[in-house]
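User: My collaborator sent over this chain with a note saying "see what the structure looks like." That's all I know about it. Can you take a look?
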Amino acid sequence: MMRLLSLVLVAAVLVPAAAAQQKLGFVDSSVILAQMPEFQTAQQELERLTQQWQSEVTALSTEADEMADQYAAREILYTDEERVAQQELIAAKRTERDALRNRYFGPQGELFREQQTRLRPAQERLLAAIEVVATDGEYDFVFDRAGDYLFLFTRPRHNLTELVLEELGIGLGAAGLSGTSR
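Assistant: Without extra context I'll predict from the sequence alone. Here is the result:
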């Protein structure tokens, strides 16, 4: 019993001491990525693709709407069979539009795949730089303020964003770190 009490006492003393020595830091990946030329280029390419694909979807949508308008204007002139045929053509055009939209913008669509392909190199470079800074600075944990974590208070001395930018060989630029101290 005495041995168990001693063990509990030692654990109670050592655990808080070990926890108190953990070193935390944070970065703002949105600031860093905004300064990375390869990320900016990839974002511009993705925006161009998005506009191109959206115009294709819009063209099909416009075509389906025009078909529906023509059908509505001439509906009384059609026989029952012609009405059904026209309605099927309009529905097919809308289905084609929806399939194209899903192909481009769906959860596993081309936009998602392009984002993965084009943004991954910059993201991997950022993670490697964070790892170097964290290892050199002997940080136990590094959090990303741009992510889902909410910090109500952070000490600016733990902001590693500038160190990561330096590791990447990128100057802070005109944006600075304004807005990073929440």
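A starting point for your reply to your collaborator: Residues 22-168 form one domain.
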